[in-house]
Amino acid sequence: MVDAIDAVNTQACVSYVSGLQKPSGVFAGDEWGEEDTRFVYTALQTLKILGRLDTVDVERAVEFVLRCQNYDGGFGVVPGAESHSGQIFTCVGVLSMTNTLDRLTPASRDQLAGWLAQRQLPNGGLNGRPEKLEDVCYSWWVLSSLAMLGKLHWIDQNKLVGWILSCQDEMRGGLADRKGDAVDVFHTVFGIAGLSLVGWGGLKEVDPIYCMPVETTRRLFGPR
Protein backbone atom coordinates (compact mmCIF):
# COMPACT_ATOMS: atom_id res chain seq x y z
CA MET A 1 0.00 0.00 0.00
CA VAL A 2 2.90 2.38 0.62
CA ASP A 3 3.51 2.28 -3.14
CA ALA A 4 -0.08 3.36 -3.85
CA ILE A 5 -0.75 6.17 -1.38
CA ASP A 6 -2.53 8.07 -4.15
CA ALA A 7 -5.26 5.40 -3.98
CA VAL A 8 -5.98 6.33 -0.34
CA ASN A 9 -8.42 9.04 0.69
CA THR A 10 -5.68 10.63 2.73
CA GLN A 11 -7.73 13.39 4.33
CA ALA A 12 -10.48 11.01 5.48
CA CYS A 13 -7.91 8.56 6.86
CA VAL A 14 -6.02 11.31 8.68
CA SER A 15 -9.23 12.77 10.10
CA TYR A 16 -10.36 9.37 11.38
CA VAL A 17 -7.05 8.40 12.98
CA SER A 18 -6.36 11.81 14.53
CA GLY A 19 -9.88 11.84 15.96
CA LEU A 20 -9.07 8.74 18.03
CA GLN A 21 -6.52 10.53 20.22
CA LYS A 22 -7.66 11.16 23.79
CA PRO A 23 -6.68 14.03 26.14
CA SER A 24 -4.17 11.75 27.91
CA GLY A 25 -2.29 11.31 24.62
CA VAL A 26 -3.36 7.69 24.12
CA PHE A 27 -5.29 6.53 21.04
CA ALA A 28 -8.30 4.25 20.85
CA GLY A 29 -8.49 1.39 18.37
CA ASP A 30 -11.85 2.69 17.15
CA GLU A 31 -14.60 4.97 18.43
CA TRP A 32 -15.89 2.26 20.79
CA GLY A 33 -12.73 0.35 21.58
CA GLU A 34 -9.80 -0.08 23.90
CA GLU A 35 -7.19 2.60 24.50
CA ASP A 36 -3.57 1.54 24.88
CA THR A 37 -0.04 1.63 23.49
CA ARG A 38 -0.86 -0.66 20.57
CA PHE A 39 -3.02 2.06 19.09
CA VAL A 40 -0.55 4.83 19.86
CA TYR A 41 1.98 2.96 17.73
CA THR A 42 -0.36 2.11 14.86
CA ALA A 43 -1.88 5.60 14.78
CA LEU A 44 1.47 7.37 14.69
CA GLN A 45 2.87 4.98 12.10
CA THR A 46 -0.17 5.53 9.88
CA LEU A 47 0.11 9.30 10.16
CA LYS A 48 3.85 9.25 9.59
CA ILE A 49 3.45 7.24 6.39
CA LEU A 50 0.85 9.78 5.25
CA GLY A 51 3.10 12.67 6.27
CA ARG A 52 0.56 14.09 8.74
CA LEU A 53 1.96 13.72 12.25
CA ASP A 54 1.21 17.43 12.56
CA THR A 55 -2.49 16.60 13.01
CA VAL A 56 -2.05 15.04 16.48
CA ASP A 57 -0.35 15.93 19.75
CA VAL A 58 2.80 13.86 19.40
CA GLU A 59 4.25 15.15 22.67
CA ARG A 60 1.23 13.95 24.65
CA ALA A 61 1.44 10.57 22.94
CA VAL A 62 5.11 10.29 23.89
CA GLU A 63 4.34 11.30 27.48
CA PHE A 64 1.65 8.61 27.67
CA VAL A 65 4.12 5.99 26.45
CA LEU A 66 6.72 7.08 28.98
CA ARG A 67 4.16 6.69 31.78
CA CYS A 68 3.77 3.04 30.74
CA GLN A 69 7.33 2.13 31.74
CA ASN A 70 7.57 -0.09 34.82
CA TYR A 71 10.06 -0.52 37.66
CA ASP A 72 11.59 -3.53 35.84
CA GLY A 73 12.39 -1.41 32.78
CA GLY A 74 9.65 -2.88 30.58
CA PHE A 75 6.44 -1.33 29.27
CA GLY A 76 2.80 -2.36 29.54
CA VAL A 77 -0.34 -1.54 27.57
CA VAL A 78 -1.28 1.27 29.97
CA PRO A 79 0.42 2.82 33.00
CA GLY A 80 0.78 0.18 35.73
CA ALA A 81 0.14 -2.80 33.43
CA GLU A 82 2.49 -5.79 33.34
CA SER A 83 5.60 -5.53 31.17
CA HIS A 84 5.26 -7.50 27.95
CA SER A 85 7.55 -7.85 24.93
CA GLY A 86 4.83 -6.94 22.45
CA GLN A 87 4.01 -3.73 24.28
CA ILE A 88 7.69 -2.91 24.59
CA PHE A 89 7.91 -3.02 20.80
CA THR A 90 5.02 -0.57 20.44
CA CYS A 91 6.46 1.80 23.04
CA VAL A 92 10.06 1.73 21.86
CA GLY A 93 8.72 2.00 18.32
CA VAL A 94 6.81 5.18 19.18
CA LEU A 95 9.87 6.70 20.84
CA SER A 96 12.05 5.74 17.88
CA MET A 97 9.75 7.02 15.14
CA THR A 98 9.29 10.33 16.99
CA ASN A 99 13.03 10.69 17.70
CA THR A 100 12.43 10.73 21.45
CA LEU A 101 14.20 7.52 22.49
CA ASP A 102 16.70 9.73 24.31
CA ARG A 103 13.93 10.55 26.79
CA LEU A 104 14.89 7.21 28.36
CA THR A 105 18.09 7.57 30.38
CA PRO A 106 21.05 5.34 29.46
CA ALA A 107 20.47 3.39 32.69
CA SER A 108 16.79 2.95 31.84
CA ARG A 109 17.60 1.75 28.32
CA ASP A 110 20.10 -0.76 29.69
CA GLN A 111 17.57 -2.02 32.23
CA LEU A 112 15.00 -2.43 29.46
CA ALA A 113 17.49 -4.23 27.21
CA GLY A 114 18.40 -6.50 30.11
CA TRP A 115 14.74 -7.41 30.64
CA LEU A 116 14.45 -8.23 26.93
CA ALA A 117 17.65 -10.30 26.91
CA GLN A 118 16.25 -12.34 29.81
CA ARG A 119 13.44 -13.48 27.53
CA GLN A 120 15.83 -15.95 25.89
CA LEU A 121 15.34 -19.47 27.23
CA PRO A 122 17.96 -22.26 27.38
CA ASN A 123 16.74 -23.72 24.06
CA GLY A 124 17.42 -20.39 22.32
CA GLY A 125 13.80 -19.29 21.86
CA LEU A 126 12.30 -16.09 23.23
CA ASN A 127 9.21 -15.60 25.37
CA GLY A 128 7.00 -12.56 25.90
CA ARG A 129 7.25 -12.30 29.67
CA PRO A 130 8.69 -14.25 32.60
CA GLU A 131 7.58 -17.85 33.18
CA LYS A 132 6.01 -18.21 29.72
CA LEU A 133 6.84 -20.59 26.87
CA GLU A 134 9.01 -19.53 23.96
CA ASP A 135 7.20 -18.46 20.79
CA VAL A 136 8.54 -17.69 17.32
CA CYS A 137 6.63 -14.39 17.10
CA TYR A 138 8.81 -12.97 19.90
CA SER A 139 11.74 -13.37 17.55
CA TRP A 140 10.35 -10.11 16.18
CA TRP A 141 8.91 -8.33 19.24
CA VAL A 142 12.05 -8.86 21.33
CA LEU A 143 14.68 -8.55 18.60
CA SER A 144 13.20 -5.42 17.04
CA SER A 145 13.20 -3.67 20.42
CA LEU A 146 16.78 -4.75 21.10
CA ALA A 147 17.73 -3.51 17.62
CA MET A 148 16.19 -0.09 18.29
CA LEU A 149 18.11 0.03 21.58
CA GLY A 150 21.35 -1.02 19.87
CA LYS A 151 21.59 -4.18 21.99
CA LEU A 152 21.05 -7.08 19.57
CA HIS A 153 24.34 -8.55 20.73
CA TRP A 154 22.90 -9.08 24.22
CA ILE A 155 21.33 -12.40 23.19
CA ASP A 156 22.76 -15.57 21.66
CA GLN A 157 21.77 -14.99 18.04
CA ASN A 158 23.09 -18.30 16.72
CA LYS A 159 21.09 -20.24 19.28
CA LEU A 160 17.96 -18.26 18.42
CA VAL A 161 18.39 -18.86 14.69
CA GLY A 162 18.72 -22.58 15.28
CA TRP A 163 15.55 -22.59 17.37
CA ILE A 164 13.54 -20.60 14.81
CA LEU A 165 14.59 -22.95 12.02
CA SER A 166 13.59 -25.96 14.13
CA CYS A 167 10.01 -24.61 14.11
CA GLN A 168 9.59 -24.82 10.33
CA ASP A 169 7.53 -27.41 8.51
CA GLU A 170 10.14 -28.86 6.18
CA MET A 171 7.51 -30.55 4.02
CA ARG A 172 4.96 -27.75 3.53
CA GLY A 173 7.02 -24.70 4.47
CA GLY A 174 6.21 -22.00 6.99
CA LEU A 175 6.93 -21.56 10.68
CA ALA A 176 4.89 -22.47 13.76
CA ASP A 177 4.84 -20.86 17.19
CA ARG A 178 7.04 -23.72 18.37
CA LYS A 179 8.33 -27.05 17.08
CA GLY A 180 5.65 -29.61 16.28
CA ASP A 181 2.73 -27.17 16.09
CA ALA A 182 0.81 -26.17 12.96
CA VAL A 183 2.45 -23.48 10.86
CA ASP A 184 0.66 -20.21 10.08
CA VAL A 185 1.28 -16.93 8.27
CA PHE A 186 1.54 -14.86 11.48
CA HIS A 187 4.46 -16.81 12.91
CA THR A 188 6.08 -17.22 9.51
CA VAL A 189 6.14 -13.45 8.96
CA PHE A 190 7.59 -12.59 12.34
CA GLY A 191 10.00 -15.51 12.36
CA ILE A 192 11.46 -14.45 9.01
CA ALA A 193 11.53 -10.80 10.10
CA GLY A 194 13.48 -11.86 13.18
CA LEU A 195 15.93 -13.82 11.05
CA SER A 196 16.42 -10.70 8.93
CA LEU A 197 17.28 -8.61 12.00
CA VAL A 198 20.20 -10.90 12.83
CA GLY A 199 21.37 -10.93 9.21
CA TRP A 200 20.63 -14.58 8.52
CA GLY A 201 20.46 -16.15 5.07
CA GLY A 202 20.80 -13.08 2.87
CA LEU A 203 17.27 -11.91 3.67
CA LYS A 204 16.28 -8.34 2.84
CA GLU A 205 17.06 -5.95 5.67
CA VAL A 206 13.95 -5.16 7.74
CA ASP A 207 13.48 -1.86 9.57
CA PRO A 208 12.98 -2.66 13.29
CA ILE A 209 10.71 0.36 13.82
CA TYR A 210 8.21 -0.30 11.04
CA CYS A 211 8.57 -4.01 10.17
CA MET A 212 9.01 -3.05 6.53
CA PRO A 213 12.00 -3.48 4.23
CA VAL A 214 14.65 -0.83 4.89
CA GLU A 215 14.61 0.06 1.20
CA THR A 216 10.93 0.99 1.62
CA THR A 217 11.34 3.07 4.78
CA ARG A 218 14.29 4.92 3.25
CA ARG A 219 12.13 5.80 0.29
CA LEU A 220 9.32 6.99 2.57
CA PHE A 221 11.27 8.79 5.28
CA GLY A 222 14.85 9.09 4.04
CA PRO A 223 17.91 7.59 5.77
CA ARG A 224 18.08 7.71 9.58
From TrEMBL:
GO molecular function terms listed in the Swiss-Prot or TrEMBL record: metal ion binding; Rab geranylgeranyltransferase activity
InterPro entries associated with the record: PGGT1B-like (IPR045089), Prenyltrans (IPR001330), Ptb1 (IPR026873), Terpenoid_cyclase/PrenylTrfase (IPR008930)
Known cofactor(s): Zn(2+)
Record bears the keyword Translocase: no
GO CC list: Rab-protein geranylgeranyltransferase complex
Enzyme Commission code: 2.5.1.60
Cofactor binding notes: Binds 1 zinc ion per subunit.
Pfam families according to UniProt: Prenyltrans
Function description: Catalyzes the transfer of a geranylgeranyl moiety from geranylgeranyl diphosphate to both cysteines of proteins with the C-terminal sequence -XXCC, -XCXC and -CCXX.
Family per similarity comment: Belongs to the protein prenyltransferase subunit beta family.
Name of the protein in question: Geranylgeranyl transferase type-2 subunit beta
